Amino acid sequence: MNSFDYIDNDDCLDPYTNLAMEEYVLRHMNPGRDYLMFYRNDPSVVIGRNQNIFEEINVSYVRENDIHVVRRLSGGGAVYHDHGNLNFSFVTRYEQSRLHNFRFFNEPVVKVLRSLGVPAELNDRSDILACGRKISGNAQFSSRGRMFSHGTLLFNTHLDEVERTLAVQMIGIRSRSHKSVRSVVANILEFLHKPLDIHRFRELLLDGLRTNGVIGSHRKLTDVDRQKIRKIREQRYNRWEWNVGRSPRFNLVRTRQIGEHRITIRLEVEKGVIRSLSLKGDPEWIPEITSKMSSIGGKLTGLRYEPEEIERVLRINSDPLLTEQIPVSDFKQLIYSEDDS
User: Could you say which of 74, 99, 204, 323 is the most buried, measured as most Cβ atoms within 10 Å of its Cβ?
Assistant: First the structure.
């Protein structure tokens, strides 16, 4: 393995900026050099390029707790990041022998972990395990003769938050999105011979990689670099159209009992927007109510599939004859709800 230039990200904790930095290094920095980055993020869920957020995360919990959701360039599954998670990224020239060859990139990291007393090993997928539990998940992306291989290092992450944020609640969805494979996870801290904080852990990793010849020179970002990174951040990673709108098309079919009435909803969402929506109620309802039920679908078509937007439009178009049978709040729960209660 050739030596990598280590890039210091100034301990930036913004997930949108860190992913933009990774893309900037991949596409715009010297293509004749190889680079390595470490970075941490504020509490975030980072989803794979081809994933549907509604099938991967507990949307209500994430919203209520101001947890960022950001889509990365690479594939793979959804992961939770916080200040106790250290991410690494190797950026190199593209070679066929390196694509899907996670051992090539991860072996140096495993070697340093072992020197710290962690019983780290690579499995036959893309993960690093310790005593059978996952401490690192990895993914790759290639473009125009360049590629990166990046991964997580669960050092002292709040594992209960992993469970809460990735506990999928949305029922009844059908899509062709890439689904995450859940694993039993662990923190690296519990395997160390003596306690460390994550800053010291990063220093020891860097020292070990330097000693093993993986890291060569140190590269600081310039003001010009940062300006271009901010532009990528705003054009891609901080946009709803990328993080939510890139979710693959999906269909949802759900039947609920609301009071004395049983209602079935069928909707299709594409690029995060409701493309079609139909509601079918009790056959014995009077024609006026059935007609008003049908008109609801037309009012919501073209709307972002978000609870606030759905409720806003429902209230604007509320009708006493219909809301007497089905309150607006129940209608919203029928159309956008993360459980099957």
Answer: 74
How far apart (Å, rounded) are the C-alpha atoms in residues 237 and 73?
Answer: 10
Residue 44 lies in a domain: yes
HEC per residue, 96-124: CCCCCCHHHHHHHHHHHHHHCCCCEEECC
CA 37 remoteness from chain centre = 19
**Residue at a domain's end among 243, 266, 291:** 243
The string of pLDDT tens digits covering residues 73-127 is: 999 999 999 999 999 999 999 999 998 899 999 999 999 999 999 999 999 888 9
> Distance (Å, rounded) from C-alpha 263 to C-alpha 281?
5
Host domain of residue 322: 250-335
Category of 5 on φ-ψ map: left (φ > 0), alpha (ψ -120 to 50) or beta:
beta
Give the gyration radius of the chain's Cα atoms.
Answer: 24
Q: What is the CATH number of the domain that holds 23?
A: 3.30.930.10
Output the domain CATH number for residue 275: 3.30.390.50
For residue 124 the two structure tokens come to 């036959």
Helix, strand, coil percentages (3-state) for the chain, rounded to 5, are: 35, 25, 40
Amino acid residing at 315: R
Model confidence, pTM? 0.89
